[in-house]
Amino acid sequence: MEALVCKKLGDPTALKSSISEADNDSPIILSKTHPIPQLKSPTSVRVRVKATSLNYANYLQILGKYQEKPPLPFIPGSDYSGIVDAVGSGVSLLKVGDRVCSFAALGSFAEFIVADQAELFKVPDGCDLVAAGALPVAFGTSHVALVHRAQLTSGQVLLVLGAAGGVGLSAVQIGKVCGAVVIAVARGDEKVQFLKSLGVDHVVDSSKESVIASVKDFLKARKLKGVDVLYDPVGGKLTKESMKLLNWGAQILVIGFASGDVPVIPANIALVKNWTVHGLYWGSYKIHRPVVLEDSIRELLSWVAKGRITIHISHTYNLSEASLAFAAIKDRKAIGKVMITIDDERSVKSKL
Questions:
Q1: Domain Enoyl reductase (ER), which positions (predicted)?
Q2: How far apart, in whole angstroms, are the C-alpha atoms of residue 28 and residue 75?
Q3: What is the pLDDT of residues 257-274, one digit of tens each?
Q4: Which residues, 6 or more positions from 110, have their beta carbon under 8 angstroms from its beta carbon?
Q5: Please, what are the domains in the chain?
Q6: How far apart are the first and last CA of the chain?
C-alpha cells in the first residue's frame, strides 16, 4: 500500500513539491510498497482510508517538537475516515462496507489502518465522509474544551484566538451552538470575511487593529462586562493582551501554542480575579476519560448530520503532495481544515 513515512525528524515543508521514496532531503517519503496492516485481534477492523486530516500537532511531531515523540520511522496521522475493509472474527458492531471515522496516535497517512471496533464511529448518512475525517481532533478538542470543561452557556462571552484555523473555527461554531456571544480574532481580510459569514458576533483583524480596543468597543456597545471564556490555541503576546479583557471568574482554555511562544499566566492575577485555567491535551482523554471523548464525537457527528455545524475544508491534497499540505498549515494559509484524500480507485486495486 501507499503510506507516508517519517524517516527522520525535520521540516516536512522543505521540499514543497511531490515526494517519492527516492527523496533523501525530506524527512517524509511516500512508500508505495509499505506492508498492509493485518488484523491484530478478533475485534480488530481494517479501514480503507478515504480522508485524513492534517493538524498542527502532526507538523510538530515530524519536526520533533511535539510532546509525544514516537520512534523512527513512523507513519504520521491522527483523525481519518474510510470504509471498513476487513473485520476480525469477534467484531459485532461493524461490517465490511460500513462508513466510519476515528483517530489514532499514529498511522492514518496511509491507504489502510487497523483499529479495534470500540475505537471506530459510524458516520451518519447525512455526513460527508471527507468531512467526517476532519472532525475528531479539531472539533473534538473544542467540544471537550467548551462543553465539558468550561461548560459554556447561553449568553456568556467567548473569545476565540486563531479563529480561522482548524480548532479555532470549530470553537467558533460550537460557541454559537451553545448560544454564546462569540468574538473571533484572525488575521487578513479573507479570514475575517469568512468568519463574519458564519454569524460571528464580532471579528477582529489582528493584522490591522488592536485586539483590546476593538473588543472593548464591542463589549461597551453591547453593554457586556467582559469575556467569560478565552479559547487560546495561539499563545504568545496575544494571550497576554487577551487577559486584559477577562471578567472576574473567567475561564482560560489553554489549547496550544501556534505562535511558538508559551505564555505566562500570572498566578497572582488569576487569584485576585478568580480565574480558572484549563490545560487541555485532548489526546490524553483516550487514556484517562475515554467515555467523555466517545460521547463528544458521537454528539458532534449528530450535529453535522443535522446541519448544526459545518466542516470547512480549504485545502485538499493527495499523499504525494504532503509537503504542500504541511506548508499550508505552517504558512497559515488554511481557513478551517487541510485534508489528504486517498484515491478510491487506487485503493481498491491495492493487493490484499
A1: 22-340
A2: 9
A3: 988 899 999 999 999 999
A4: 1, 2, 3, 4, 34, 49, 75, 77
A5: 3-134+311-341 (3.90.180.10), 153-280 (3.40.50.720)
A6: 9
